[in-house]
Amino acid sequence: MSDWLDAISWDEQGLVPVIAQDAASGDVLMFAWMNREALALTVERGEAVYWSRSRRKLWHKGEESGHTQKVRDIRLDCDKDVVLLRIEQTGGIACHTGRRSCFFNQLRDGDRWVAADPVIKNPAEIYK
Amino acid sequence: MSDWLDAISWDEQGLVPVIAQDAASGDVLMFAWMNREALALTVERGEAVYWSRSRRKLWHKGEESGHTQKVRDIRLDCDKDVVLLRIEQTGGIACHTGRRSCFFNQLRDGDRWVAADPVIKNPAEIYK
């Protein structure tokens, strides 16, 4: 029953990189990792569950912030070692900085990073 | 002059994961890795240069297929350890299977992967 999980080329730590994309706008919102359990739970619940490498535990996205991610489509790449989730982002905020997307630093003039997207909600308000 | 490169949290192999997104459609096309030299070259040339982990060498995307990627925007995430390229995909084909995107395997009914996107060009025609 877990053939679809066995089809994935998990890395030496048993993880796979995951890209979360807004299903409506197409914006790339964040990047994280999953282990088998995280991906199985994501499918079961229909909400993104990642593996936090720093905390070494499962991380139900939005468990603190309320910014859960409803999964609309799950894709696997040609090498079967990267997952793409197309999601509906609750609250419109995926980033812990209170921005819509984690990819807010833009390279300008090929030599500096500029925070190019606005903070929608103060993180102190999100994680209280 | 390479402060912007030092700002990146390179992993223990000196690499950073890179997501390539179609700048026009928003489609996620592929996922690869870069080292410092690859990212510096990408900025210098305005075309994506990756680090091939399997071949252990720089890989100017499209060097064999002609399917180069013109870089329109470079983003770095909140943790400074993932890069997002917004690109213009020459030939409209990013995948070595001849498909537009590498993420063509779709999870159906939560238990099987189905190749959901068409092959645009026969790989034998691309890599001859």
Mean pLDDT of chain A: 97
Count of beta strands of chain A: 8
CATH class of chain A: Alpha Beta
CATH overall fold name of chain A: Ubiquitin-like (UB roll)
Number of domains of chain A: 1
Largest sheet of chain A, if any? Answer: 4 strands, mixed
The quaternary state of the protein chains shown equals: homodimer
> Could you say which structural class the secondary elements and strand pairing of chain A correspond to?
alpha+beta
Task: Choose one word for the global shape of chain A.
Answer: globular
Terminus-to-terminus distance of chain A: 41 Å
Explain what the structure shows.
Two copies of one chain form a homodimer. Chain A is of the alpha+beta class. Chain A has a single domain, classed as Phosphoribosyl-AMP cyclohydrolase (Ubiquitin-like (UB roll), Roll), CATH 3.10.20.810. In chain A, 14% of the residues lie in helices and 35% in strands. Chain A has three helices and eight strands, in the order H-E-E-H-E-E-E-E-E-E-H. In chain A, strands 2-1-6-5 form a four-stranded mixed sheet, with helices on one face. In chain A, strands 3-4 form a two-stranded antiparallel ribbon. Chain A has a two-stranded antiparallel ribbon with strand order 7-8. In chain A, a hairpin with a 4-residue loop joins strand 3 and strand 4. Chains A and B meet through strand 1, strand 2, strand 5 and strand 7 of A and strand 1, strand 2, strand 5 and strand 7 of B.
